[in-house]
Amino acid sequence: MSNKIVLTKGLDIPVSGEAELRITKTVAPDMVAVCPADFKGFIPRLLVKEGDSVLCGSPVLADKKRPEILAASPVSGTVKEVVRGEKRKLLAVVIASDGRNEALDLGVKSPEGMDPEQIKACILESGLWPFVIQRPYGIIANPADKPKAIFISAFDTAPLAASPEFTLGDRMADIQAGINALARLTDGGVHIGLNAANCSGTPFHRLDNVNIHVFEGRHPAGNVGVQISHVCPVTKGTVIWTVSLPGLAAIGARFNKGRYDVARKVAVAGPAVMEPAYVLTYPGAPMSTLASFFGNEDDLRIVSGNILSGTNAGKDGYLGFYDNSVTVLREGTEEELFGWLNPIRSKVYSQDRTAFSWLFSGRKYDMDTNLHGGPRAFVMSDGYYGKVLPMDIFPLYLIKACLAGDIDKMEKFGIYEVIPEDLALCEYIDPSKNNIQEIIADGIRLMLKEME
């Protein structure tokens, strides 16, 4: 049984370079990195030292406040380097792979015969708990909490996003096991969002033990935060958990196979990619292992994740723990003659129809990172952001409340319902060129600090 929710607000950005649905290579990196910055709300404590041998699933980091929450090695090998920054801040644990991918034997278990505490213990000891994210704030969930419900989005509407059906269609048994385990951790059930465009054709509509919701609309319809806001809005004092599909498959594999398995198909896409396609690799893999896709150009921005909310990893960075796509764009360093005063710009996309390109529907554009201007004061009404954000909040007032550090107004205007990625489109269309996602992230950090 499912219900259909139609979203009238949003924006699909027509970027060229979508990945072809084929795997061109399997990337077995010589080294991978476990980066604490990937885990929000996690204060890392190092569990290994340089020279230590590790297996797939061996803990390398623990949370200082909640030591039962672990981050594990995705490959077997040797700890090559512990990278630190200013004030000895831990930046990464670099592991040299031995190529064998030997894993800890965690034991095959059936979640149906386990109580909630046993299931939590299994997920925690395996190092997979960081896949469980809490709303509000988008941080790693507290295992001691009992969530009102658990939400999963089974589609992604972000530009050039990886296809869930292609990347995970062959792992339905693991996904079902993950659902069966998580369903025992809440009384509100597991909720999964499907895309109305292919809800009957996707294998995810055959999942059991879930509440199915069908969403029709443009991006950000695939964001789990948007789906939560229309089904079970987050309010002060309530906690909802979310899990990504790759995380769900990894949790299921822990029960079905008794091992830590976070290998994934990753879409390498974008206007600067020569042959966009998929690779099979691991989180923490160096971006240098994907160099064959984008060559030796210097002025490239290599993003781990999608172009709206991903991280600028650069050629020396690593694939993020939660990411299943890499997007490559050219840096927009060229100045444009007359700018927006010239309406005859057929190669420039304009969501506000300031160029004639809007006449060419269905066209894809070789976008770059050019902002076409610099930061300036807010000059638009709240309705301008509201046309791309299908949530019952006041985005402009929330952003200004975060800038002012006004906690009461942040609560009033919706800080509990959002994380930075939910307002990524607001940042994209913003004529004031403000870093809205960073502003929201600062607001969330302030809220968390007040809770300490």
Please, could you describe this protein's structure?
The strands form 4 sheets. A 7-stranded mixed β-sheet has the order 1-14-13-12-15-10-11, covered by helices on one side. Strands 2-17-16-20-18-19 form a 6-stranded mixed β-sheet. Strands 3-9-8-5 form a 4-stranded antiparallel β-sheet, with no helix packed on it. The chain has 452 residues and is α/β, with parallel strands linked by helices. It starts with a strand and ends with a helix. A hairpin with a 7-residue loop joins strand 16 and strand 17. The chain has 11 helices and 20 strands.
Protein traits:
20 strands; 452 residues; 21% helix; seven-stranded mixed beta sheet; six-stranded mixed beta sheet; alpha/beta
Write the layout of secondary structure elements.
Layout: E1 2-6, E2 23-26, E3 31-34, E4 44-46, E5 53-54, E6 59-63, E7 70-72, E8 77-84, E9 90-97, H1 116-125, E10 133-135, E11 139-140, E12 150-153, H2 164-168, H3 172-182, E13 190-195, E14 211-216, H4 224-231, E15 240-242, H5 245-257, E16 264-269, E17 277-281, H6 291-294, E18 300-304, E19 311-312, E20 325-330, H7 382-386, H8 395-404, H9 407-413, H10 424-429, H11 436-451
Parallel strand pairs: 1-14, 2-17, 12-13, 12-15, 13-14, 16-20
Antiparallel strand pairs: 3-9, 4-6, 5-8, 6-7, 8-9, 10-11, 10-15, 16-17, 18-19, 18-20
